[in-house]
Amino acid sequence: MKLKIENLSFEIDDTKILNDINFEIKKGEFVGIIGPNGCGKSTLLKNIYNILTPTNGSIFIDNTPIDGFSSKELAKKISTLTQHSGGDFDFSIIDIVLMGRYAHSSIFSSTSKKDLEIAKGALEKVGLSHFEKRSFLSLSGGEQQRVMIARAIAGENDFFILDEPTNHLDIRYQLEIMDIMKSLDITMFSAIHDMNIAATYCDKLILLEEGNIIAIGTPAEVLSKENFKNVFGVEVYLSKNPYTNKLSINYIPKCFSTK
Ligand SMILES: Nc1ncnc2c1ncn2[C@@H]1O[C@H](COP(=O)(O)OP(=O)(O)OP(=O)(O)O)[C@@H](O)[C@H]1O
Where are its TM segments located (predicted)? Predict the structure, then answer.
């Protein structure tokens, strides 16, 4: 599945949140959207999965405008992970993961054996099989995040839109979840705060600042010293991880800076 965004702008109460956004994601690409807090990353993702409607511009999935899809049709194409997507209602873990099967079932049908198998398999992938019957609200933040990732996996779609998938996760699960994503043969568009995760796992990065695309390209092109300085006001030391051959970012806090 491929995604194309053309001249997208989004305003709230006459305030521009996103300004003339243009980019394309090809089938199989892992694309990260990065940028400072409040720059518009989540707003862009919400426009793509149709929670918000662009003020101007168009979004195409496989050359079809996104507003041509019903919410169920869209859920059959895109698996999503939003921030705080677990909600406040308490469900068992397996029920939450089964919600990922929503697009594949009718409201009149009960859970099929196949749905249950897929949901259990997704829970196993994120290492939470033993939590099947536990209540969602009783889990830690990181465990809840893994359940929500299992729900996205249970959708069995080939396009994932994720808002900070490694949020709340300890380093083992940050790497494991991203490794799982890599193993799934999917296209991914994800907001990411951790620059080393972005550099390690993404083919392409989009750097957003105050609703504008400042840079778009490979991690090595986008995660330059200049962009860290200009957009985040942070000094970095860049090197190459000899094991992954990927860019490695080391931050130089002001209290350690000799310049
Ligand atoms: N309903 C709203 N009313 C007014 N402003 C809003 C609304 N929703 C979002 N914004 C503003 O839009 C801007 C972009 O928000 P968004 O959540 O997209 O940022 P973000 O890049 O995802 O931030 P973060 O990294 O902190 O998650 C912010 O300044 C936010 O305050």
Answer: none
Q: Which residue lies with its CA nearest to atom 25 of ligand 1? A: 37
Core vs surface per residue 227-239: b (16+ CB within 10 A) or e: bbeebbebbbeee
Residues near ligand 1 (Cβ within 6 A):
12, 17, 35, 37-43
Q: Higher confidence at residue 106 or residue 186?
A: 186
| Distance of CA 38 from the midpoint of ligand 1 (Å) | 5
Burial class (CB in 10 A: 0-12, 13-18, 19+), 20: middle
CATH superfamily of 3-256: P-loop containing nucleotide triphosphate hydrolases (3.40.50.300)
ipTM: 0.97
**Number of the ligand 1 atom closest to the C-alpha atom of 191:** 22
pTM for the structure as a whole? 0.91
